[in-house]
TrEMBL record:
It holds the Pfam family Ring_hydroxyl_A. Belongs to the bacterial ring-hydroxylating dioxygenase alpha subunit family. InterPro entries: ARHD_Rieske_2Fe_2S (IPR015881), Rieske_2Fe-2S (IPR017941), Rieske_2Fe-2S_sf (IPR036922), Ring_hydroxy_dOase_asu_C_dom (IPR015879), Rng_hydr_dOase-A (IPR001663). Transmembrane segments: none annotated. GO terms for molecular function: 2 iron, 2 sulfur cluster binding; dioxygenase activity; iron ion binding. PROSITE patterns: RIESKE, RING_HYDROXYL_ALPHA. Keywords: 2Fe-2S, Aromatic hydrocarbons catabolism, Dioxygenase, Iron, Iron-sulfur, Metal-binding, NAD, Oxidoreductase. This is Toluene dioxygenase.
Amino acid sequence: ITDEDLYQLELERVFARSWLLLGHETQIRKPGDYITTYMGEDPVVVVRQKDASIAVFLNQCRHRGMRICRADAGNAKAFTCSYHGWAYDTAGNLVNVPYEAESFACLNKKEWSPLKARVETYKGLIFANWDENAVDLDTYLGEAKFYMDHMLDRTEAGTEAIPGVQKWVIPCNWKFAAEQFCSDMYHAGTTSHLSGILAGLPEDLEMADLAPPTVGKQYRASWGGHGSGFYVGDPNLMLAIMGPKVTSYLTEE
């Protein structure tokens, strides 16, 4: 899974054609508020517009390919490339070119904006997609919304992202990091994933009221000295973790 040719194919087939989570709307509350992040290996700017919509565009100047914005987050009326001063508005449109008449007399600025992505949101989460032919976000998320609804907008105040920027550099293939959150529930009931379990439980239940999932059917696959599996036990706990359809399938006689 770490083959370089396969990785390049994943960038083209997966990251370039999927809806990718970029942030939360509370990170960019006011017009001009922005964050910078990545879609695959492509740097992008995510910025709130004057009409409250959100724009996502490639963070790369069309002149010499330099970064348009080098900060992690902030507020801006425009973005100016530090190399030759080409300026873009918050929607990513090229609006000013120094010495345009002398150096680029035939330049049509409307044709020289950075590549712009499709943008849609779900309960405050900001998603973007390079593929103009991809299905809409609601269709793409499908039944995964069951799990997202456990965690998002659980009160009238809604969900709010914690301010600030934190970054980790992990020397691994992207799938290794993803598998840490989907391969097993060994530590889910006590440590890092506990909040996710509790969010999916009925409000009148506590973890102490649930039977540990150690009996019933077992589906297990082992690799690299570690295993993962589904242990069928308390239906309430299973419902929180696996959703209604999977729970019904695994518990049917």
